[in-house]
Amino acid sequence: MVLMNGKIVPAAKGRVSILTHGFSYGTGCFEGIRGYWNPDTEDIYLFRVREHFERLHRSCRILNMALPYTPDELVQQAVELVRQNNWHENIYLRPMVYKADEIIGVKLHDLRDHYYMIAVPMGDYVSTKGLECCVSSWRRIDDNAVPARAKVTGGYVNSALAKTEANRNGFGEAIMLNADGHVSEGSGENLFLVMNGELHTPGATENILLGITRDTVMKLAQREMGRITRERVIDRTELYIADEMFMCGTGAQIAPVISVDHRPVGTGTLGPISSEMQTLYADVVRGRRPEYFEWLTPIYKPLPVAATNGNLLNIEVSEVID
Ligand SMILES: Cc1ncc(COP(=O)(O)O)c(C=O)c1O
Prior knowledge:
Layout (H helix, E strand, L loop, with lengths): L1 E3 L2 E3 L11 H5 L2 E3 L2 E6 L4 E5 L1 H14 L8 H15 L5 E9 L13 E9 L9 E9 L16 H13 L4 E5 L5 E4 L3 E6 L2 E4 L10 H14 L3 E3 L12 E6 L3 E8 L2 E2 L7 H14 L10 E3 L19 E3 L2
Parallel strand pairs: 8-9, 8-15, 12-13, 13-18
Antiparallel strand pairs: 1-2, 1-7, 3-6, 4-5, 4-6, 5-17, 6-7, 9-10, 11-12, 11-14, 14-15, 15-16
The chain binds pyridoxal-5'-phosphate (PLP).
């Protein structure tokens, strides 16, 4: 079953015409949301699903799109879609808003917007056992060209070029630099460096997608490890001297990086802070840490109300350095 414009219909009805504007011009925006199966409680937990729909709304604002459902309504639709598919494993949700008119002509205005969502089973997206990365020869798209802040379908050509180059050259993932040569992010992941026990990550204006996993990592680092994150401009050669490094994203989860451009990161094996973050994240998303229940949306039965309800969003996590 899939969701088309607010209605759940058989997947066979989830078809769009080859003339669709979003298909021709990349005028769509989307989200990627994971749901984790917990075999002990026999339930699936959608992770920070509301925040994903809030970001979808922000992407729509940038792309001049109308999404006629509130984030809460979208959450309800997501839960219902997973229920109707009766999934009992790890899943991935892909909501998409796109320009639906079947016309020739590049623009964003005076076009109809359609919305769909699918829910499919999903395993690992990249290796979580140690990624070998390269600095891409492709530069990250700029906010004044194709804004990375919005999760725009067309913008993923940039990611695809970088990813294919990296894979064909024998690397697991690409790290893209901005036009000015500073570090931005991976093809589908944000990047963290560990230096002297602190976390460092490119700031919000470095042409990154402001990741929900990135935010989760900063909050877990603060709450669970007492470690601050410095959001700052990062040079390419800092990638070669960091003690540890990891990528993170809904798809990638927490993926430690063990080398960059054939230079080992730290000892060239999984570092202690990356490993700790990986374990912590895996427990939180599967509902093994009740303090973080407010980040979870169960599919089949309610969770006990979290003791921290409403507090997690307000943790002071980082120092922004201009
Ligand atoms: C380019 C890019 N950066 C970062 C991320 C991580 O974002 P999130 O943690 O919200 O999944 C993604 C994931 O979709 C991405 O595509």
